[in-house]
Amino acid sequence: MQHALALAQRGDSSVAVMFLDLDNFKNVNDSLGHDAGDRLLQAVAQRIVKTTRSSDTVARLGGDEFAVLVEGIASQRDAERLADALIDTHNLPFTLDGIEVRVTASIGVALSSADGSAETLLSNADIAMYHAKSAGKNRHVTFQPQMQDMLQERLRLEADIGRALAQQEFFLEYQPIVDLGTRALLGVEALVRWRHPEAGVLMPARFIQVLEECGQISRLGRWVLRQACRDFCAWRTAVAGSAELRLAVNISGRHLQHGELVQDIAQALLDSGLEPHNLVIELTESTTMYNTDANLERFHCVKALGVRLAIDDFGTGYSSLSYLHRFPIDMLKIDRSFVSRLTNSDNGPELARAVITLGETLGLEAVAEGIELEPQVAALLALGCVAGQGFLFAPAGSLQELSHSTFVARRNALWNGPAGRRELTERGWLKTPQVARRRAGAA
After folding, report:
1. d(Cα 423, Cα 430) in Å, to the nearest integer?
2. Strand pairing report for 185-196 and 200-202
3. Of 334, 317, 309, 330, whose CA–CA distance to 387 is shortest?
4. What is the pLDDT of residue 71?
5. For residues 389 and 430, is the Cβ–Cβ distance under 8 A?
6. Do 68 and 20 touch, CB atoms closer than 8 A?
7. Whole-structure pTM value
8. Secondary structure of the chain: what % helix, strand, coil (to 5)?
9. Tell me, what's the pLDDT at 417?
10. 10 Å Cβ neighbour count for 74?
11. What is the pLDDT of residue 114?
């Protein structure tokens, strides 16, 4: 690398270093074994070599990390085009022992400067790769100087996590889920926040990944489950028809994979007295589809407790319909990107219709996320979706605030009338009319 930098300084070109890290490679080792993981790494190396030029240098740094040294770069865009090609080649499936495996890559790109050292270039590529991971994986990010400050913030958060857990700096807010037609309350979703003593209130996007990488996410998830169940049980007594209300709790894929989730859910139910059917465990679509056979077994263990299972952000991952049919899923949460397209895209209604129809076909319940406009509500109702949440109704807040909301008042009013009570009971929570009728007929 020193030689490459020296040559670049004499000419008009630059040197680029790319750090490539495989996304969720651990899932392959866990599900298929380390021998399969080693063969996957060999296949990845071959794809990288085929995608790069013969003059480029490819090396495995260790684990599932690779580095590419690219000389003779004329511009940043040249480096990014190569990074695009590497991302594209990793979006194609690998085949191991007859099994199709999808493993994407996150890439950090760094370009040399006139006064930069080899150590700085390597460090910059590593920092950029971390940002690619943080931005959602399966992408490349080019290093920018301000990323150093962001890395320092991450290191500070990492150091603060132990104290935050010990001193109960995390707290919960609850967003209402409402009947789109009547605006009556159907349930709530618990959302975790961090009241940081210096940075103020932090949203999950700022700290969840740090907790996952530090190995502390199960500890936080355990606390969220117990606290949410306790809060919900104490609060719902003031709401009419409380036995039908649902509490949704998000669970990290790492918590699911660590094997402690079933015990943690059971303990939270026992401690709070919450009936299992009132609890909905939400996992993202991408989490569900990785390590599918192992996750299928874990899902059945969770279902055996009597709780409901939901796929969150549905439509953003790569669900196989065969796997989706096998999983004991009760509901789909339609991602906000589909909801926003209802009013700003010509094909938006058709995309949402496809998701809702899929849910109806599989007998699943549905809720739309991220609703911000009244026309979106009208479009969802026309498509057969009866429940949703979003800023149009209310942001997340305290349960005490929700007690005085129009959603609770509307539910109480409906419940006090025979027709309204029957409507709330028969429809259930998040059921499209088709699903409700099918389940009523089966009963």
Report:
1. 13
2. antiparallel
3. 334
4. 87
5. no
6. yes
7. 0.73
8. 55, 20, 25
9. 82
10. 10
11. 53
